[in-house]
TrEMBL record:
One of its GO terms (cellular component) is cytosol. Gene3D superfamilies: 3.40.1190.20. Pfam families: PfkB. It comes from Parafannyhessea umbonata. The keyword Hydrolase does not apply. This is 1-phosphofructokinase/6-phosphofructokinase 2. Residues 12-287 form the Carbohydrate kinase PfkB domain. Keywords: ATP-binding, Kinase, Nucleotide-binding, Transferase. InterPro entries: PfkB_dom, Ribokinase-like, Tagatose/fructose_Pkinase. One of its GO terms (molecular function) is phosphofructokinase activity. Belongs to the carbohydrate kinase PfkB family.
Length: 305
């Protein structure tokens, strides 16, 4: 069983307006509200592709209750309840511009952190834990190490989708898969990603540090994937971007929906991943993913090494 952990979930509110003008009332439209957080999004997309998973997360207040109840309509949820109110993030589409305004989130005290660790340690059907997103306030980067160590003790794998600089040390613990983008690779590992050859060199460097497999997304330029045999280059579909929110999570989930159980199926996994991410980015949310097959026809995947 795949479990997804969202340390800092949110209610995402997406609205549109013609323009944002300082010190004036801005009327918005097309408001949408969704239970969100990177791990939740991974579970939702896995479910879309027929892959079962269970959601783990820290939830608090009326927003946390709403997220857990809404998410449970799609996937099983095992919550750890905290004091405080789960955050609300705002995404504003103003004409051609996109404004992303995430909140810091509710603090998670150490007793609740330990409750989650104990919960994971007791999961008898855990095969892979996908840890996605930022930590809540009061949670130290060492928590990622604690999660990784518990998985290893249980003989389970861990997938990391995070932007914290501690990823440079965590890869030494040999996670199954990491999913940085090019900007995160530069910031975390201190290497260039300006050209394809730079990215290839960076992937080799990170692989030598310990990461077993690396999915590096490049936004509108596609993605790279490295395993222990090859490096693959995937193109991107041509779309009009409405919102990049959730697109990276959908890309990871779509990739895992094939590759997790068939490590040789890299090409179809990358094709589905790129098409799914493009569908989400061009529809301003997870939506029904109705255009994935159409967009997949635009995707080219080739082995570059």
């Amino acid at each position: 069983m795949i479990y997804t952990l969202t340390p800092n979930p949110a209610v995402d509110v997406v609205v549109s307006c013609d323009e944002l003008t300082p010190n004036r009332v801005t009327r918005t439209r097309d408001a949408s509200y969704s239970p969100n957080g990177k791990g939740l999004n991974v579970s939702f997309v896995l479910e879309h592709y027929g892959v079962p998973s269970t959601i783990l997360g820290f939830f608090g207040g009326f927003t946390g209750t709403w997220i857990a109840e809404e998410a449970a309509r799609t996937c099983p949820v095992k919550p750890v309840w905290i004091d405080g109110i789960t955050r609300v993030n705002m995404f504003v589409n103003a004409g051609e511009d996109e404004y992303t305004m995430p909140n810091a989130g509710a603090p998670v005290e150490r007793p609740q952190q330990q409750e989650m660790l104990d919960l994971i340690a007791g999961l008898e059907d855990l095969d892979t834990l996908v840890v996605s997103g930022s930590l809540s306030p009061l949670m130290e980067p060492h928590y990622y190490e604690e999660l990784t160590d518990i998985c290893h003790k249980k003989g389970a794998e861990i997938v990391l989708d995070m932007s914290h600089k501690s990823l440079a040390e965590l890869v030494k613990k040999e996670p199954l898969l990491i999913k940085p983008n090019d900007e995160e690779i530069e910031a975390i590992f201190g290497v260039d990603t300006k050209s394809d050859s730079d990215i290839v060199s960076a992937l080799h460097h990170i692989h030598e540090l310990g990461a077993k497999n690396i999915l590096c997304t490049l936004g509108g330029r596609g993605a790279f994937f490295l395993d222990d045999r090859h490096i693959y280059r995937a193109s991107a579909a041509k779309i009009k971007i409405l919102s990049t929110a959730c697109a990276g999570d959908a890309t990871l989930a779509a990739f895992l929906s094939i590759w997790h159980d068939d490590r040789d199926a890299v090409v179809p996994a990358l094709t589905r991943a790129m098409a799914t991410g493009a569908d989400v980015a061009s529809s301003a949310g997870l939506g029904d993913l109705a255009r994935v097959d159409e967009l997949a026809n635009q995707i080219e995947v080739k082995v570059v090494e």
